[in-house]
Write a structure and sequence with these properties.
By secondary structure, the protein is mostly helical. Helices cover 51% and strands 9% of the residues. The protein is built from eleven helices and four strands. It has helices at 4-9, 16-20, 27-40, 58-66, 74-81, 85-90, 93-100, 146-163, 168-190, 194-199, 207-210, and strands at 109-112, 121-125, 131-135, 142-145. The strands form two sheets. Strands 1-4 form a two-stranded antiparallel ribbon. Strands 2-3 form a two-stranded antiparallel sheet. A hairpin with a 5-residue loop joins β2 (121-125) and β3. α8 (146-163) runs antiparallel to α9 (168-190). It is globular, with a radius of gyration of 20 Å. The two termini are 34 Å apart.
């Protein structure tokens, strides 16, 4: 959606009709563009990761991050992160972002959640007082490759399953299920108009039907 602020950045109100009149790709055109990008960044390129030799120590990063926090709350945060691998993962979005910055990307940038792990999805009330299920934490939001949110979500499924004592097969199934659900819903959204996607929502009451 183009705002007046966007129009000013593009050169003033005279550019607004041109922006609104820009051609919109059809679902078929978008799929073709995605397949073309896959030629340069195939899916298998995302299957491996090796830490670089100059990778910063995660604990040092946390210490640096704490410099701007309320001093009295830093020990509380650290204590919570020490409880399990998953609680550490929840508090280390910066480390993962730095790791992901060196990984392949299709070049499709979006406004990321920035911290799309399992426990940042939940139920909240809409302005109409309806209970909705969606992402509910945007403290780390910022522009970046769409793959980052998908990878953080899938990794959180593995770590959570591991913390619960689930088998490796179940851990893998949890990650694959999260990625498959993302793929399914993106395919549905690709057939919808931009306005319909904007207003798309998942009512909490309908969750029981999906379980």
């Amino acid at each position: 959606m183009t705002t007046l602020g966007d129009a000013e950045a593009l050169g003033g109100d005279d550019d607004l009709p041109a922006v609104l009149g820009a051609p919109v790709q059809s679902p078929e055109e978008r799929r073709a563009a995605g397949r073309e990008r896959r030629q340069t960044t195939p899916r298998r390129a995302h299957s491996a990761w090796e830490p670089p030799g100059d990778r910063r120590d995660p604990v040092e990063l946390l210490i640096d991050q704490s410099a701007g926090r309320v001093p009295e709350l830093v020990p509380v945060r650290n204590t919570r992160m020490l409880q399990s691998a998953f609680t550490f993962y929840r508090g280390s979005a910066l480390q993962m972002a730095l790791d992901l910055a060196a990984t392949p990307s299709s070049g499709i940038d979006v406004q990321l959640c920035g911290d799309a792990h399992l426990l940042n999805f939940g139920i909240f009330a809409s302005p109409e007082r309806a209970l909705m299920f969606d992402l509910n934490d945007f403290d780390e939001t910022g522009p970046g490759p769409f793959e980052w949110d998908v990878k953080r979500l899938a990794a959180s499924a593995v770590i959570a399953a591991r913390d619960l004592g689930m088998s490796v097969a179940d851990q893998t199934a949890a990650a694959q299920g999260a990625a498959a659900a993302y793929r399914t819903w993106m395919a549905r959204y690709s057939e919808m108009t931009h306005l319909d996607v904007w207003y798309a929502r998942l009512a909490a009451a309908s969750l029981l039907d999906l379980m």
